[in-house]
Specification:
There is one protein chain. Helix content is 76%, strand content 0%. The protein has a domain at 41-68. The radius of gyration is 18 Å and the shape is flat. The longest helix has 29 residues, at 41-69. It has helices at residues 7-33, 41-69.
C-alpha cells in the first residue's frame, strides 16, 4: 500500500485538531466548573502566580527537549 504524498500536511492538520480539541475541552471545563469564584483577591493573585510558574516550567521543559532531541519541525 502506497504512503500518501502529503504526510506532512496531514500531520499538521491532525496536530491542529488535537490542539483545538484540547482548547475546547479546557474552555468547557473552566466555564462550567466555576473554579475561582470563591477565591479572595489574595487567593486569585496567588493562583495567577502559580499559573505563571507552571507556564514557565512547561516552556523550560519544551526548550530543553528541543535542545536535547532537536527541533522536529525543521
Amino acid at each position: 500500500m502506497a504512503k500518501p504524498k502529503c504526510t506532512a500536511e496531514i500531520y499538521k492538520i491532525m496536530e491542529w485538531l488535537k490542539d483545538l480539541s484540547d482548547k475546547l475541552i479546557l474552555w468547557f471545563l473552566r466555564t462550567t466548573a466555576g473554579f475561582g469564584k470563591e477565591l479572595t483577591t489574595d487567593g486569585r493573585r496567588e493562583q495567577q502566580l502559580w499559573r505563571e510558574q507552571r507556564m514557565r516550567n512547561l516552556q523550560g521543559l519544551a526548550q530543553r527537549s528541543k535542545q536535547r532531541f532537536g527541533d522536529k519541525n525543521k
